[in-house]
């Protein structure tokens, strides 16, 4: 997609769990070559929103367009194959397999969460192509020197970057990252930020869920703030940071 073109458009997405409105009338838009942060206190509904747009879950009502096409009810594998790739809030790596194998499996499964079944079904004829593509992504994110290390032996910051490499292996135009900076050291956050800037410069769209307001400042292009399932603010990071409703949400949370 051309730089600046709309990749993802969520319109009035609502997700009800019994009496709880985890997402209420949520709308957002992500363009090619843009990083949008979705922030808000714990329990605000950020991960639920990710699940609605990535096909892991289905909205109670509302519309999700990806590359102009409705993806509601399509399922996460289909959506991943269309070019939307995501990571999850908790690391989902195969710790005793190599960095290379972890990414190769990601390329194979294209965004599905069925890691093990994908590993079992991998055919030898496909292996060389997958490994070459995986190696390319590992170099791209700067983990080349760890290609043959066990994933579980990497520092947390490197594991998060490895998850991004795995998401990149299915050749997405839109990346959804759920709290990639959580628990990272300052230097690791810097490395992660540098990688996201590089991907943006290459035209990638990034939707980033983040609890840590400091990490998104100076990195992202726009911010959407959620509280109690709803959007309470949207705009440039420096404006949103000063918004009284946002300050209240963070102090209250
Ligand atoms: P965040 O990612 O912003 O911390 P979540 O999207 O995980 O928030 O959760 C938003 C709210 O929805 C929380 O109150 C959570 O308990 C609830 N919730 C999330 N998923 C489910 C589910 N599958 N069933 C019932 N409640 C859920
Ligand atoms: Mg969450």
UniProtKB/TrEMBL annotation:
Lineage top rank: taxon: Bacteria
Subcellular location: Cell membrane
Boundaries of every ABC transporter domain copy: 8-253
Name the record gives this protein: ABC transporter
